[in-house]
Amino acid sequence: MAKEVTVLIVDDEPHVLSSLQRLLRQEDYQLLLANSAAEALQIMEETLVDVLVSDSRMPEVDGTTLLTRVQKKWPRCIRILLTGYPDIDDLIKSVNEGHLYRFIQKPWDDDEVRLVLRQATRLAFSERERIRLTKLIQTRNKKLSEVNQQLEASVTKRTNALRKAIHLRDRAYKKLEKSYHNSTEVFAALINQRLPKTRQTNDKISALVKAYAEQAGWDAKRVNDLSMAAALYNLGKVTWTDDLLMTPSDNFRGKDRDKYREYPELGESLLLSLEPLQRAAYFIRHHQERWDGRGFPDQLEGGDIPEESRLLKLAIDYIELQRGIILDRMMNRDDALNNLGIYADRVYDPEMSARFIELVHDKAPDLEPLPEGVILCRLKQLKTGMLVKRNLLTDSGFLLLTEGTVLTTGMIEKLMGFERTRREHYHVLIDVSSQDKVAPDSESEPPQED
Description:
Elements: E1 6-10, H1 14-24, E2 30-34, H2 37-46, E3 51-55, H3 63-73, E4 78-83, H4 88-98, E5 102-105, H5 110-157, H6 161-192, H7 202-215, H8 220-232, H9 242-245, H10 254-271, H11 278-285, H12 307-323, H13 333-342, H14 350-363, E6 374-378, E7 392-393, E8 399-401, H15 409-422, E9 427-431
Parallel strand pairs: 1-2, 1-3, 3-4, 4-5
Antiparallel strand pairs: 6-9, 7-8
Helix pairs in contact: 3-4, 5-6, 5-10, 7-8, 7-12, 8-11, 10-11, 12-13, 13-14
Pfam family, one: HD_5
Domain HD-GYP: 176-372
Domain Response regulatory: 6-121
């Protein structure tokens, strides 16, 4: 949080304020002190306070009355009551009228005070981030809505009277649908803008889950909610540093691992204010649960995990294993699929895993469709005389072959050697017609990998 959250403590006893100031001086938030309710309200008029801790019994204005006033004027401020007199009626009044978050009894336990304030400040920081991102979405949607209205007005002028009623009906539907998708696109862009292309996984994962869902006969709304979840599953990483985004999850330790385990919940919380995305948010929350109950955040097990979240887990791991996002090495496509089978019944739903692997083998929804007249070849399938139809790049973007190159035996051998050295797997797009022009001596088997 880096001092972005402010905590205000109110007590009429100076020695209490001094003790709490000493106790909390090393905490990662800004700490303010006030010796009366009036002084506290003056501070809150001038400063954004995220967490208010108030003594219950103070002269002139007591703690319960202060919390009630704060709740009415600053409802997002988290309110905590500090009391040496745990009177049940006062507590009930504080909870009902002041919307109390917690209460701490005097004499307090130092560790409890630190823990309660850490939890409260984390909640306040998350709420502030949610509000900021919601405002960003609303601003983008407003701009997009203005553009849509201009385009729709232009179309309306060119529409005859007979088709006007139909157009108005269609426009209402499209406007609703576009608003739904615009929110998703803006959120997804927040994280993708900070990632290199090789780590932008949303499109591939969306294609996989959509293909599976449609083959399974899921209805259109369910498929749409699932597609939204696939596009936004890593939204909870939006507050991560660039170094953390580039670190394989298997390498996380300590606080980094704790942050990693929190991202599904944070992703859910950022979307809950958008009603059309609430089902997608629910799927996102549970996409890191495991079939054996050892996942997170809720340790759900087996059939208790939403079916959509189980499918997301399969698709995400399949793609992220190939991109080096889970392990510090990149698996090839076949190894990533084998990994899903190996961990079925522990990490993944075994029946769904088998159907998913079969789908990927049979229909390859994760691969782009090939242009007409082009075939995709592994290096061991290449022959001298074949014509390259698209530039061949390494995973890091290094150019190996240019479009229009006619392959020679030497080129093929060098490519295979490079593939072995780099531990990468290359596919080359070849002009189908060039197969007929292969030299006679190239009909023999191409060089084989060691």
